[in-house]
Design brief:
Layout (H helix, E strand, L loop, with lengths): L2 H14 L7 H15 L5 H22 L4 H13 L6 H19 L5 H9 L1 H10 L4
Helix pairs in contact: 1-2, 1-3, 2-3, 4-5, 4-6, 5-6, 5-7
Length: 136
């Protein structure tokens, strides 16, 4: 499997959470399937990268299984908006960067350290966009 195909599936799962996928156990099943796909990514370096990104997906499942958090919910909404595929590469990158700043502001208002860290974890998909999308 190509790394880009894996990433597309990972993004699809993230976008589906809360809409198409509403049960934490359904999310866990989707992440388990993603874990299987990660092991089939072509190239050792790309495969290792895909496996590293499973950590954020595992964190997402763990957070989904916890009671609702307003802080994490607001950060999640920002992450979804900021990770959209619309626009030029420069626009996507700028949107992801602004999303990361907004998530940091939201995380700073979290009532607990656990909620702050959970919110900040949502920056990972945006950081990947910033890293992967060429602004030119």
């Amino acid at each position: 499997m190509e790394y880009d195909e894996y990433q597309a599936e990972r993004r699809r799962i993230i976008a589906a959470w809360g809409t198409e996928i509403t049960d934490p156990e359904q999310l866990a099943v989707a992440v388990a399937r993603l874990r299987e796909l990660a092991s089939t990514v072509d190239g050792a370096e790309q495969r290792a990268r895909a496996i590293r990104y499973l950590k954020s997906m595992d964190d997402l499942v763990a957070e989904a299984r916890r009671p609702d958090s307003e802080t994490v919910g607001r950060a999640w909404d920002v992450m979804l908006r900021a990770s959209g595929p619309d626009g030029t590469p420069a626009e996507r990158r700028a949107r992801a960067e602004e999303g990361m700043r907004e998530i940091a502001r939201i995380a700073d208002t979290a009532p607990t350290l656990a909620e702050k860290l959970a919110a900040l974890n949502l920056n990972e998909p945006l950081a990947e966009i910033v890293h992967a999308v060429d602004p030119d």
